[in-house]
Structure formats: structure tokens, C-alpha cells
């Protein structure tokens, strides 16, 4: 049993992928260059324990991975260039990067990848040679749909991230325009709630927005919104976070770290804060 895989770019990555599916000595893998095309020959000794079904399944998976890891980036860039002229060059690059990451995540687009995998298997059932670039251009009907899904999701994630960055910039502007009302604020998270203390351990009223919120009767305003609003208004020179491991990835913590940046520290285990280190800025 043998299959020949031909491609016109990135031979090293393709060989790495093929070896990943055939790591043992039961399969012989050769490669060479013929007429400006890279050729990978995968040969299975008929006396070995791998069945034809196992061999053909692994070949189809390897070809799918070569398509995704070697060829998808060019297709994503082409689609963005042709169909999204409204985007700036740097925006296209960022969206392309996000889209490829989404595409290569094995948890995403399972049904679409399975459909392409079956297209590859059907082709290899009657052919022992597959020239991947030609196969993509003339035979692989499901790839464009998969790429379109990845790009659409990439654009959505880029838009959300762009809006988030703009939101953070606005909050940073508000903080910088405020006169600090406290040198130090200790922010303690406990039991899905939080408390604010000054440097002397006195409680800081965290609810002075309550009356306004009650008047406008906005049910969409959360405790997190109130906390961030409070911190922006009092604009402390330093914020020390006291929080358990379970709180560190909370959105409200990431917003505080991104908005207040170098003003944010984290407690390293004390009643209020005897030791402090800077928090690594989050996304």
C-alpha cells in the first residue's frame, strides 16, 4: 500500500504532519522534489500490522492537516483581500491571524472538517496520488465554506476585541482625568462580593451610586459595573487586589488591571497587604 502526496509549498511542515500520523517503522516515508513540486511517498509494508483502513484513515487525516496548516492561511488572506476591501491592512492581518487560530483549534468546526475529511477519503479510494493544491482548486468543495465560517467568526472576535480596547481607553481617560481621592485602596473579593478599604483599614462606601441606579431603574447594571465606576471616580494612586485563585480570571479583575495598569498590585498573603507585587497586565 502506498500513497503519493504532492504539494507546492512548505515541505518541512507537510513532512512533520505525515510523520505525526506514522511515527513507527512500519511505514516508510520518502520525499523529494520533482519539477518544482514537493513529493511525499508514504509506503506501508503489506506484512505489517496496520490495516488498509487504518492506513487510509491516517493518510486522509494527514492530508486534511496539510490543507489546514499549510494552505489555509493563503486562502484566508485571499478572501479577506477580495471580499473585505472596507478593512484596513493591519485589520486584515489581525483578522487573518484570529481566523487561522480558530480554524486550527480542533474543537471548532467539527462537522465541516469531517465533511472535508470524507471528501479526501473518497478521492483516495480511487487514487493513490493526490496533488493537494490542485485538489483544493478543482475538487474540494467544502473548504471554501469552512474558510468562510472561520473568517466570519474571526471578524466577530476582532470586532468584540476592538470594542473592548476602545472601552478600556475611554475608562483610562476617565481615570487619568480624575484627581486621586485615595493613595491606596484595598479591594477584597469574597463570596462573590467585594469590599473596599483605605490604607488604614477603614471601609470605603462602595454603594454611593446606588441611589442613582435605583432612580434610573436599570436592571442591566451589575455589581461589577458599580465597582468599576466607584474605582474610576475615586481614582486611587494604588489598588491592591486581595483575591482567591478563583477570582483572578474574572472579567471585572481583567478590566481593573487593564484600566489602572501600573497602579494595580496583588496581595501575597496578609491581613490587608504587607507584601505587594505588580500584577501582570491581562488581555
Give a verbal description of the structure.
The chain has helices at 11-21, 52-83, 89-104, 110-126, 132-138, 142-177, 210-216, 223-234, 251-260; strands spanning 2-7, 27-34, 37-44, 129-131, 184-190, 193-198, 238-242, 264-267, 276-278. The protein has nine helices and nine strands. The longest helix is centred in the middle third of the chain and has 36 residues, at 142-177. By secondary structure, it is of the alpha/beta class. It folds into two domains: 2-172, no CATH class; 178-278, Nucleotidyltransferase, domain 5, CATH 3.30.420. A five-stranded mixed β-sheet has the order 6-5-7-8-9. Strands 2-3-1-4 form a four-stranded mixed β-sheet.
Number of helices in the DSSP assignment: 9
Domain count: 2
- Taken in chain order, the helices and strands follow as EHEEHHHEHHEEHHEHEE
> How many strand units?
9
Strand order of the largest sheet: 6-5-7-8-9
Amino acid at each position: 500500500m502506498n500513497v503519493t502526496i504532492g504539494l507546492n509549498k512548505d515541505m518541512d511542515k507537510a513532512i512533520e504532519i505525515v510523520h505525526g500520523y506514522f511515527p513507527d517503522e512500519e511505514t516508510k516515508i520518502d520525499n523529494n522534489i520533482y519539477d518544482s513540486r514537493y513529493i511525499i511517498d508514504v509506503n506501508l509494508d503489506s506484512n505489517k500490522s496496520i490495516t488498509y483502513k487504518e492506513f487510509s484513515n491516517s493518510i486522509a487525516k494527514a492530508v486534511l492537516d496539510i490543507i489546514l496548516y499549510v494552505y489555509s492561511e493563503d486562502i484566508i488572506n485571499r478572501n479577506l483581500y477580495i471580499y473585505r476591501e472596507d478593512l484596513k491592512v493591519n485589520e486584515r492581518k489581525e483578522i487573518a491571524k484570529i481566523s487561522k487560530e480558530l480554524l486550527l483549534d480542533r474543537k471548532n468546526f467539527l462537522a465541516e472538517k469531517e465533511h472535508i475529511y470524507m471528501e479526501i477519503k473518497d478521492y483516495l479510494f480511487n487514487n493513490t496520488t493526490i496533488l493537494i493544491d490542485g485538489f483544493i482548486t478543482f475538487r474540494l468543495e467544502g473548504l471554501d465554506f469552512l474558510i468562510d465560517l472561520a473568517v466570519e467568526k474571526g471578524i466577530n472576535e476582532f470586532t468584540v476585541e476592538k470594542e473592548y480596547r476602545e472601552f478600556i481607553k475611554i475608562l483610562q481617560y476617565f481615570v487619568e482625568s480624575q484627581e486621586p481621592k485615595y493613595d491606596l485602596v484595598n479591594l477584597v473579593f469574597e463570596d462573590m462580593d467585594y469590599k473596599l478599604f483605605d490604607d488604614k483599614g477603614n471601609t470605603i462606601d462602595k454603594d454611593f451610586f446606588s441611589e442613582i441606579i435605583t432612580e434610573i431603574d436599570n436592571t442591566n447594571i451589575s455589581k461589577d459595573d458599580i465597582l468599576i465606576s466607584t474605582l474610576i471616580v475615586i481614582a486611587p494612586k494604588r489598588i491592591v487586589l486581595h483575591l482567591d485563585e478563583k477570582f483572578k480570571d474574572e472579567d471585572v479583575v481583567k478590566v481593573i488591571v487593564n484600566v489602572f495598569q501600573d497602579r494595580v498590585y496583588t496581595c501575597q498573603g496578609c491581613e490587608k497587604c504587607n507584601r505587594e507585587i505588580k500584577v501582570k497586565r491581562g488581555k
